[in-house]
Amino acid sequence: MIAQSPIAGDSRILREATALAAAGHSIHVIGRDVPEAWLADQHSELGPGVTVESVSRSSGLRAGNGGLAVGHGRTGPKVLVQRFGRWLLLPEHRNRTEKHWRTAAAPRVAAAGPFDVVHAHDFNTLELAAEYAAKWSAKRVYDTHELWFDRALPGRPTPLWRARGRRHEVKVASKAQFVITVSEGIAARLRSRGLPDVRVVRNTFPRADDVPPAPDRPEGLLYAGRVGAGRDLPTVVAAARQLVPFRTVLMGSVDPNYRLDLGPVETVAERPIDEVDDTLRSYGISLVTLTNTCENHRLALPNKLFHAVRAGVPVVAADLPELRAVVTQYKLGTLYEPGNAQSLTTAVRGLIENYSTYADGVRSAAAELNWEHDSAALVAAYADLTG
Known about the structure:
By secondary structure, the chain is an alpha/beta fold. The chain is built from 15 helices and 13 strands. The protein has helices at about 10-20, 35-40, 40-45, 75-110, 125-135, 160-175, 185-190, 235-245, 275-285, 295-300, 305-310, 320-330, 340-355, 355-365, 370-385, and strands spanning about 1-5, 25-30, 50-55, 115-120, 140-145, 180, 200, 220-225, 245-250, 265-270, 285-290, 315-320, 335. The strands form three sheets. A six-stranded parallel β-sheet has the order 10-9-8-11-12-13, with helices on both faces. It has a five-stranded parallel β-sheet with strand order 1-4-5-6-7, sandwiched between helices.
C-alpha cells in the first residue's frame, strides 16, 4: 500500500491493512510523516502481518515555516499581498510537494518490493503505484477516498487542471484490477467516467461491544473532527447562538490560519479516535457538517457519520445527496441546509423532540453500518485477485 497520508491517523488505511492481514495477506504500507514513536510500536497497533515505513514531505505554506503565512487578526497592505500570494501559489505548491514525496518514496518502494499487488491510496500515489506494478507484473488496486478532482481546494481556481486530471485518472486507473471508493455516489460517478469495476468500502467503524441505552434527552451537540474550511462551522456558530442554553461543542485539531469566531461554542481537547465514543455519548448528538461547495462534498460519506452509529448517537447532518440517502434510509437523525443557520437550528430542535425514535434508528443501523460488514467486501475483492 502507498499513501501520502500520515498513516498513524488514517483509520481507513489501518483498518484495511489489518483486515487483509487477518485474511492471510502480508501488507507493507509506505506512508507520509509517520511519527517515530508510532513506527517503533506499530506491531502493537496493527498486529502481525502488517509493517509500515515513513517518507517525509514538505510541510507546505504554513505559519512559522517561512512560507506565505497569513497572520491572525492582522490587517493592512502587507497582509493583503501575503494572502493574494498564498491564494495564487497554493495549487502549484500543493502539486509540487506531492510530486516531491513521490520522488522520495520511489526508491523506498523499489527496495521494499517486489509485491503481488500494489494498492494506491488516492490519486497522488496512483502513478507511482502503476509504475512499480508494471515493473513487478503485479496486480493493481486503486483506492480513492474522495472524488479527487472535484474537491474544494484552497487557492486560485484550476479548471483546466481538474479537467485534465479527471481524464488522466481514468486512463491510469482503468488498468487496475478494480477500484475501491467510499460511497455509492462516488462509485457511480467514476463508473460514468469509464471505470467499470468500482466497489464500495465505506469508512465505517468496528461494532462496539456494549452500547449503553440512549438518555431520555441529549445534553448538547458535538462536532468531532478537523476544524477548518469546508466543514460549515460558521453556520454551526450562528445556530449555536439560537440554541443557547443548549450546548454546542467542537473537538478536533485546527487547520493552520483558520479563523472562527466561536461565540457561545465550547471547545474540548482532541482525543484519540477510539476514545471519542464516550464523548459523543456524553453530549448525545453528533454534528456531521459539510459545505455544499463541491461535488466531492455532495457525494461524500464522512467517517464521523459512522462513528456516531458506532457510539449509538443520532446525528444532525448536512442535507447533501449521499448523506441524505443514508441518514433517511436508516433513520439516523435530521438534516439541515448547509449554510443556513435557521435550518440547522430547526433540525437540532426536531431531533431533540424525537430523540428516542432516532436513537432507536441508530441502534438498528449498527447491524449493517459497521466495519465487519465493509471489511468483508474488501477481503472478497482481494480474494478475486487470487481466485
